[in-house]
Amino acid sequence: MSAQSSGALPSLPGFFSLIELESVGSTNDEARSRAENGASAGTIVWAKQQNSGRGRRGRAWISPSGNLYCSIVLRPQVSPAIAAQLSFVTALALGEGLQEFLPTSVTLEYKWPNDVLIDGQKLAGILLESQIGEQSKLDWLLIGTGVNVASSPVDTDRPSTCLRQIGMKLSVTDVLAAYIHALSTWLARWEKTGFESVREVWLKRAIGLGEAIEVRLPNETLTGTFEALDTSGSLVLTTPQGRQLISAGEVFVQR
């Protein structure tokens, strides 16, 4: 881990405290270490680059400088199943934080369960990790986020884009501030009203809703129509064999 940077820090809501680092292996790993040692809810670990960043299912997340890499420590007093809703809360915060800056010519969408897209190309990914404590409640939960600001990976099985590519000249600090301010609002809304309002807004920009999709699971691939999200955030897939609830998987829209 490199020493903390001395650059200007963004102004953030009072609940959050920012730890700025030049380089880490993974912001989630660094945040986990701090959470296990008592870091308070709202602690943000922000690194200029990661040497061993990762996405879902252990995939490598290429992490050159110029993009946003951060992980947030939260300690929600809920079950792990309820905490999984924070993936959708985070997607909305990223989308809302960036929406006011986006050109009107582009389309922002959410892909189940944890990606933010621009014109069908991946702009940001979200990784939740947690530790269960007493009475099956969470001890802590980490929200890891990567946003392609200045560059995007090219050798992947999914098309991706970055803010610079669509003509946006925001700095990483600008993106971080916009994201965290929106996240503060959406966290409060989720805590007060539950998942339903989050679900409704997320579905308005859901890619593939009502369309044919392919869902790749560890041991099989399902095809069907993306019908809805249920109240837990599971994907409702209509197949020739009937309706199925999918709690985890990789979605490919068949366009």
What report would you give on this structure?
The protein is of the alpha+beta class. The chain folds into two domains: 17-203, BirA Bifunctional Protein, domain 2, CATH 3.30.930.10; 212-253, SH3 type barrels (Roll), CATH 2.30.30. Helices cover 23% and strands 32% of the residues. The protein has helices at 27-36, 80-83, 86-99, 172-193, 195-203, and strands spanning 17-24, 43-50, 68-74, 108-111, 115-118, 121-132, 138-147, 212-216, 221-229, 235-239, 242-246, 250-253. It has a seven-stranded mixed sheet with strand order 1-2-3-7-6-5-4, sandwiched between helices. A five-stranded antiparallel sheet has the order 11-10-9-8-12, with no helix packed on it. Strand 10 (235-239) and strand 11 form a beta hairpin. Helix 3 (86-99) crosses helix 5. It is globular.
